């Protein structure tokens, strides 16, 4: 009976020690952090636009044009579908607009096989892989591209 009580006491002490460690490391999570309200910009409709505002408008137009150009390049489903068997790595990079990450490599000479991965532009987890043999596309796969 004495061994049983000593064992239970040791287990209880271990839980208390573990709880203390979690409290020290985890901090106090019961209190919510106060976030100040965001300041909103109010404009007076009677006030005419200043030249500074006109510059901002032209910047917005430029960024819209840049976004349109981005749609034509990048790791998207449309660009994934443009990739065809037999294309070289450089041709694929030209379509996607960026280099891929080499994730697998095997063989040498005419039997060299490489697999590259590109992270997608459409959100978390979106990606595509392209397998090259002798610098020509042999297969491709994608997940989550839009």
Automatic annotation (TrEMBL):
<dbReference type="InterPro" id="IPR037873">
    <property type="entry name" value="BamE-like"/>
</dbReference>
<feature type="signal peptide">
    <location>
        <begin position="1"/>
        <end position="19"/>
    </location>
</feature>
<protein>
    <recommendedName>
        <fullName>DUF3862 domain-containing protein</fullName>
    </recommendedName>
</protein>
<feature type="region of interest" description="Disordered">
    <location>
        <begin position="29"/>
        <end position="80"/>
    </location>
</feature>
<feature type="compositionally biased region" description="Acidic residues">
    <location>
        <begin position="29"/>
        <end position="69"/>
    </location>
</feature>
<dbReference type="Pfam" id="PF12978">
    <property type="entry name" value="DUF3862"/>
</dbReference>
<dbReference type="InterPro" id="IPR024418">
    <property type="entry name" value="DUF3862"/>
</dbReference>
<keyword id="KW-0732">Signal</keyword>
């Amino acid at each position: 009976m004495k061994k049983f009580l000593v064992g239970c006491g040791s287990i209880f002490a271990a839980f208390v020690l573990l709880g203390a460690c979690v409290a020290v490391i985890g901090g106090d999570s019961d209190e919510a952090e106060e976030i100040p309200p965001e300041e909103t910009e109010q404009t007076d409709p009677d006030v005419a636009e200043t030249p500074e505002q006109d510059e901002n408008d032209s910047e917005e137009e430029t960024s819209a044009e840049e976004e349109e150009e981005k749609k034509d390049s990048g790791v998207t489903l449309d660009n994934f579908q443009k990739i065809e068997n037999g294309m070289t790595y450089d041709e694929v990079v030209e379509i996607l607009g960026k280099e891929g990450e080499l994730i697998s490599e095997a063989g040498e000479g005419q039997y060299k096989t490489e697999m590259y991965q590109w992270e997608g532009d459409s959100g978390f987890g979106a990606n595509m892989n392209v397998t090259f043999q002798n610098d020509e596309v042999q297969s491709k796969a994608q997940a989550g591209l839009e």
